[in-house]
Amino acid sequence: MAASKNYYEVLGVAKTADLQEIKRAYKKLARQYHPDLNPNNKDAEAKFKEISEAYAVLSDTTKRAQYDRFGSGNFGNDFERAWGQSKTQGGGFDPNKMGDFGFDLGDIFGDILMGGAFGSSRSGRNRSRGAPPQDAEMELPLSFLESIEGAKKSLKVGSSLIDVKIPKGVETGSKIRVAGQGQNGGDLFLIIRVQSHAFFKRQGLNVELSLPISLKEAIAGASVAVPTVSGAVDLKVPAGASSGMKLKLKGKGLEDSKSKERGDQIVTLQVVLPKFSDSDRKKVLDALSSIPEDPSVRSSLSL
């Protein structure tokens, strides 16, 4: 016999949690692990099934009472059978076929997203009842450069693929409205989530970059090739530069899609010391010994 599952731990709620707390916990996890937001991710699908099974039991008064008294028992087998029956040819899930298990996916996903078979099946059922149009939301991941340059994305909504144009300069939390692609003819709102970049960071319309330079370049000055979102440019590093010095590449930031105003790229210098041999280190220290110490080097730390 399989070990009893702790459905409360699966959803991250206390045993005393009421129905609203259980629904909130499930919705939060469903947004994270939903298969439409994690295509071809078996781990996410398995986690989504696990939290859905837990919700199916804990949201039903009778089943929850049975679970609290006897444990998960055959709930997992019943859910697995209902889940399998709900699979459609396109690989989605049909909420109508989960009803015997007391689990109405549409009630949960109607306000989360309209993607895959969830959108198609639920939308059709509501339309037959004459339900009013409802807006829906769907999270859309973008790479950093896609958010800067704009992009064209093909999304599966219901049984159709739609092309969506993402404007330049969007950021995490931006909303893109797609008219008529929500529930029963409502609108679909795409919530943008921008992925982090290896070395670029965004600050409003400005782009920030930390630039490593050698000790020789810092002392003597140099012209250094620097990547920007619009291609590499040469940056003049002044002689005597130190770590933390900020230099500006004007107009090399992001473009505002409405005003066409363009930000700057702010480059923060980071002096990287060479790997000295013992003999070279002694030569450098001997050369520096004739240079007086700067007493103000840590003045900013004075109390």
Structure notes:
The chain has ten helices and eleven strands. By secondary structure, the chain is an alpha+beta fold. It folds into three domains: 1-109, DnaJ domain (Helix Hairpins, Orthogonal Bundle); 117-195, HSP40/DNAj peptide-binding domain, CATH 2.60.260.20; 200-289, Urease metallochaperone UreE, N-terminal domain (HSP40/DNAj peptide-binding domain). The strands form four sheets. A four-stranded mixed sheet has the order 6-7-11-10. A three-stranded mixed sheet has the order 1-5-4. Strand 6 and strand 7 (206-214) form a beta hairpin. The longest helix has 17 residues, at 42-58. It is elongated, with a radius of gyration of 28 Å.
SSE sequence, one letter per element: HHHHHHHEHEEEEEEHEEEEH
**Overall average pLDDT:** 80
What is the distance, rounded to the nearest whole angstrom, between the alpha carbons of the first and last residues? 68 Å
How are strands sequenced across the largest beta sheet?
6-7-11-10
Number of discrete helical segments: 10
Classify the beta-strand content into a percent band.
Answer: 15-25%
Task: Report the sheet with the most strands, covering strand number, pairing sense and barrel closure.
Answer: 4 strands, mixed
Which spans have pLDDT < 50 for at least 5 consecutive residues? Answer: 88-105, 110-129
> Which value, in Å, is the CA radius of gyration?
28 Å
The tally of structural domains comes to 3
Q: What is the β-strand count? A: 11
